[in-house]
Structure formats: C-alpha cells, structure tokens
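User: New here, any thoughts?
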Amino acid sequence: MKNKGLYIISAALMVILGVSDALRGIFTPLFTSVFGFDMSQVGVIVSASYLGNLICLLFGGMILDKIGRKKAMAFFIIALALAELLLLLGSNYAILVFGFFLALGISTLLNTTINLISDSFSATRSLMLLNALFFLQGIGTSGSQLILSRYSSSITVWNGVLIAMAVLLIPLAILVMRMKEEKREDKAEGRTITDSTGKMQTGMIALIALTLGLYLIAEHGITNYIIMYGTSYLQISAAEAGLALSLYSAGLMIGRLVLGTVVDRIGAEKMIFLSLVIATLVAIATFATSVLTLLFIVGLAISIVYPTTVSLVRKHAPISLGARATTIAVSAASILDVIFNAVFGKAIDSFGYGRTMPVLCIALAASALLMILVIPKGKRQQ
C-alpha cells in the first residue's frame, strides 16, 4: 500500500463522517421534545441537508480542481469542524437548519474527495481499499446509532458529541496539510486515464450519473420505506420490519469489506453490473414472496456499487477536471434521487405499497442495463 498515513487519516475521517451523518436521525427526539420543533420542521432539516449535498458538491468540485486535493481536503475538514460547532447553537431553529445544511453537505463532499484520492492508495487494490473505507463509515453510523440512541433527548450528550467531533477533526486537517501532494499517474489499476489535455467524455459521464441515480433510488427507497411497507402492507410487527432493515444495512457493510477484495480483479464495471443483476433478482424475490430477510442478500450484492460507480467518473474526464466532473455527476444522481422520492411518496398514497415498492426493482434493473453500456467494449466479450 502507498500513502499509508493518508489512508489512516481517511479511515479515521470516514468513521467521524458516519457519526456525523447519523446525528440528524438519532437526536430527532431532542429537537422535538427539548428544542420544541415539530415534525414538519424536522422535515425541513432533512430537505436542507439534501440541498447542502447538492450545493457543496457543485462548488466543492471547483475548489478541488483549483487548489489541489490536499489543500481542499484540509479546508473541508476544518469547515466540517466549524459546522459541528455551529450546531451547538441548534436550539435556534434557523441555525440548526443551516448547521445541518453545512454538516451533511460537507460530509458528502469529503466522502467524494476520499473517493477521488483512492487511486493513490494502491496501484492494484485501490477499489478494495476504497470499499473498506466505506465499511468504516458504516461502522461509524451504526455504532453511533447503537450507542447514542439511548441518549437521544439529552442536550448534554448532543453538545458533547459535537465538541468531540470538532476536536478530533482539527488534528486530521493539520496532518493532511503536512503531507506531500501526490502526483497522479496517467494510469491506475491498468486503466487508462484521460490526460489533462484530453476531452471530457460528457456522454459517458452522463450515463454513469444516470446509472448512479437509478441505483440511489433503489438503495434509499428500501432504506426509507421498508419499515412502513412491512408494517402497513405486510402487517408484520415493527420489530420484524426493523430486523429486515438491520439485515439490509448489515449486508451493505459486510459486502464492502468482503466483496471489495475482488473488485480490482474482476474489474469495476463488470463487478457493478453483476452486483446489480444479483440485487435485482433477489429484490424481485423479496417482494414476490414477502420474505424481507432476503434484503440481507440485496444489501450484500449492492454494497460496492456506490463507491465503485463514483470512482468510474474520473476515468472519462481530463485530470484537471476530474474532481469537478465527479462532483457534478454525484450531484446529478442526487437530484434524480430527490425528485423520485417526492413522486414516490405520492405514488404510495395513490396506488399503495404493494404496487409501488416493486418499482425499486425496476430501478435496479434499469441501472444494470445501463451499466452494460459503461463496460468497455473489449471487456464485454470476456
């Protein structure tokens, strides 16, 4: 492995990002019972965080390309620390909304930045190492949910967690700044990367963004609606539906650690395609049989799809515009996801869960079909 120090910093950062991303859900009881906000106001916080993702990604890509990844990464880490400290004033509703706008947006931007620098970790195992980092982010999210949920109404714990994260982030930013800037090679993992004078392959990047957007629709659709699907449509207990969601999340985490080891050998595009096909078939079986425990296999199958698909974008852009192309592609995919979720909720009200939830299978299938077009022609026959 190359750049072990940077990888260790990235690993610590991903755990912190996992904790930060989980705070909005964990401390909702604090916002309602102590701060006195209603659920419609909490909904605005969720919407603001999505908007933060889009805006931070769009502007962050330009910053990455202009000042370099090392300086940009350190700047983003400091900005996240300041956003966490801003949330200490969260009893003021406007500050809480703006704080989550920044915190979630910068978190997604840092997540994407780590994806962009993953080629510097290894010439042959970068995708395996990248997926291991996303596994650690899952540990941060699930671990914080497990530990902090019992203190979900405590303002003392809320303040303590925010301060602790800010204190941990500042040394990471300093360590990043002290590291030497790595020059990116023209080839990584045997893949040709367009040089700085090459043309932006806009059509291919748009195709990858659409593939990613359809995948996000399915992944987030299961996460957001499976408990209501189980309790309202299948008439099972909340505990049973919650178990299914936990198994799905466990599959995502385990898969990133296990399947990540074979991505580099099989090839990114082929691995994504195979993962989406398996996930589609098992998702269809899940909704056809109403056996929600099968979602563990769905989670396992799709575990490597997000980080690996994002990593594909920079293969089709000049090095000087790689970060901007990646952040724009992720933003476009997120917009598609947000629009779909707004329509999906209304579709559930109109047609019911039984007819609407299988649409998620269609999204997975469409994503798999589009990925065929992303696979290099020479590899499709192998």
User: Anything to note?
Assistant: Residues 5 and 179 are 8 Å apart (CA to CA). The chain has 17 helices and two strands. The first strand starts at residue 187 and ends at 188.
